[in-house]
């Protein structure tokens, strides 16, 4: 049941991010953000055949789950330092696909900076500003930026068979379960980084 619940929410969103970033077999991918959506974007990237998946996050319990989902590398640093660490790990000038699952200007800037010329950025983090940062870099490298609200209902038909067959377990992102009456405390726990994703039972 937990894995089925993610299809209408975080896994559907992570999948949308990976598809928007044109993730495919043999590609190098950077996922920025170790929240539930970022972790399930890692799972989605692995499912779509990515060769190297670098998860950028600094919470060890979350990045450990990211490794279980398919991350080949973890980078805890942010900003320019983190971007250089990704390049050093890959031994290249960046990734084919970057996934932005945070919504901050810095994370989107890093996603664009990390993407190879002609590459793709998938954004699903709710933007905290109304502007696209790093526009000159995007333009000069011919980087495509796509994404937005995930069409989870449409994605469900593609993802459901893999969940039912047990090939993937996106429900592992739930690390706390509460009754319906305690829903506000569940939101507080996620906001305070005390829980990754809360499952509410009626």
The neighbouring-strand order within the major sheet is 3-2-1-4-5-6
What order do the helices and strands follow? HHEHEHEHEHEHEHEHE
Low-confidence stretches: none
Fraction of residues in H or I helices:
40-55%
User: How many domains comprise the coordinates?
Assistant: 1
Beta-strand percent range: 15-25%
CATH architecture assignment name = 3-Layer(aba) Sandwich
What is the CATH superfamily classification? Answer: NAD(P)-binding Rossmann-like Domain
Structural shape:
globular
Q: How would you classify the helix and strand content by structural class?
A: alpha/beta
What is the CA-atom radius of gyration, in angstroms?
Answer: 16 Å
CATH fold category name: Rossmann fold
What separation lies between the terminal Cα atoms?
Answer: 13 Å
Indicate the CATH class. Answer: Alpha Beta
Q: How would you characterize the largest beta sheet? A: 6 strands, parallel
Mean pLDDT: 94
Describe this structure in a few short sentences.
With 202 residues, the protein is an alpha/beta fold.
Q: Your description of this structure?
A:
This protein is α/β, with parallel strands linked by helices and 202 residues long. The chain has a single domain (2-147), classed as 3-Layer(aba) Sandwich (Rossmann fold), CATH 3.40.50.720. It has 9 helices and 8 strands. It has helices spanning 2-6, 10-20, 36-47, 60-69, 79-90, 105-114, 135-141, 152-164, 183-191, and strands at 28-32, 52-56, 73-75, 95-100, 115-123, 144-147, 176-179, 198-201. The strands form 2 sheets. Strands 3-2-1-4-5-6 form a 6-stranded parallel sheet, with helices on both faces. Helix 2 crosses helix 3 (36-47), helix 2 crosses helix 8 (152-164) and helix 5 packs parallel to helix 6.
């Amino acid at each position: 049941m937990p894995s089925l619940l993610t299809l209408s929410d975080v896994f559907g969103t992570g999948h949308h991010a990976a598809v928007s970033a044109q993730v495919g077999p043999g590609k190098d991918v950077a996922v920025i953000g170790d929240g539930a959506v970022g972790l399930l974007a890692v799972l989605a990237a692995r499912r779509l055949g990515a060769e190297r998946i670098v998860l950028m996050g600094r919470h060890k319990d979350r990045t450990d789950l990211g490794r279980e989902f398919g991350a080949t590398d973890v980078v805890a640093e942010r900003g320019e330092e983190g971007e250089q660490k990704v390049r050093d790990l890959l031994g290249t000038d960046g990734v084919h696909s970057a996934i932005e699952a945070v919504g901050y200007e810095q994370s989107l800037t890093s996603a664009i900076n990390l993407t190879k010329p002609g590459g793709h950025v998938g954004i699903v983090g709710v933007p905290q500003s109304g502007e696209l940062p790093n526009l000159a870099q995007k333009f000069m490298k011919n980087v495509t930026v796509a994404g937005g609200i995930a069409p989870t209902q449409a994605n469900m038909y593609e993802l459901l068979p893999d969940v039912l067959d047990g090939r993937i377990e996106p429900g592992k992102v739930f690390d706390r379960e509460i009754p319906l009456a305690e829903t506000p405390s569940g939101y507080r726990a996620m906001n305070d980084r005390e829980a990754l994703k809360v499952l509410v039972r009626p």
